[in-house]
Amino acid sequence: MATTTTTDFVSPQPSTTDNYLNNEKGILSWLLTLDHKRIGVMYLFSVLAAFALGGTFALLIRAELWTPGPTLPGVTADMYNQFFTLHGAIMVFLVIIPGIPAALGNIILPLQLGAKDVAFPRLNLLSYHVWILGACFMLLSLVLGAADTGWTFYTPYSTMTETAVIPAAFGAFVLGFSSIFTGLNFIVTIHKLRPKGMTWFRMPLFVWALYSTALIQVLATPVIAITLLMLIVERTFGIGIFDPLLGGDPVLFEHFFWFYSHPAVYIMIVPAFGVISEIIPVFSRKPIFGYKFIALSSVAIAILGFLVWGHHMFTSGQSVLAGTIFSAITFLIAIPTAIKTFNWLSTMYKGRIHLETPMLYALAFLWVFTIGGVTGMFLAVMSVDVHLHDTYFVVAHFHYVMMGGSITAFLGGLHYWWPKAFGRLYNETIGRIGALIVFVGLNLTFFPQFILGSRGMPRRYYNYLEEFQGLHQLSTIGAFTLGMGFLLTAYGLLSSLRKKFDAPANPWGATTLEWQTASPPPYYNFATPPEVTQGPYDGYENLEYDEKIRGYVPTKA
Amino acid sequence: MTDTTSETQSNSETHGHSAPPRGAHEPDENAEAHAPNGHGGGHGHSQYPHLAHHFDSPQQQFDAGKLGIWLFLFQEVLFFAGLFCAYTVYRAQNPEIFVYAHYHLDTTMGAINTCVLLVSSLTAAWAVRNAQLGEKNKLVLNISITILCAFVFLGVKYKEYAHKVHEGTLWGHHFNPEHELWELDSFKAKHPESAELAEKIAAIQFEGQPKREGHGEHEGSGAEAKAPVPKPAALPTAMAGAADADTKVRRIQHLLLQASDETLHPLVAAGIIKHDVLATTGLERPAKAHIFFGIYFFMTGLHGVHVIAGIIVWIWMLIKAKRGQFGPNYFGPIDYAALYWHLVDLVWIYLFPLLYLIH
Amino acid sequence: MAYQFFHCLSSLAAPPKLPDSPFFLLPPQASTISGEIDWLFNIILLICSIVTIGVILAMVYFVRTYGAKSRAANEKADKTSEHNTTLEITWSVIPLVITIAFFVWGFKGYVNLKTMPRDALEVQATAQKWSWLFEHSGFSSGELHVPVNTKVRVILRSTDVLHALWIPSFRTKMDVVPGRYTDLWFEATQTGTFPIHCAEYCGRGHSDMYSRVVVHTKADFEAWKKAEQNKNDSMPPAELGAKLAQERGCFGCHTIDGTPKVGPSWKGLFGSRESYTDGTTLVIDENHVKESIEDPQAKIRVGFPPTMPTFKGQLNDKQITGLIEYIKSLK
Question: Could you report the predicted ipTM of this complex, rounded to two decimals?
Answer without folding.
Answer: 0.89
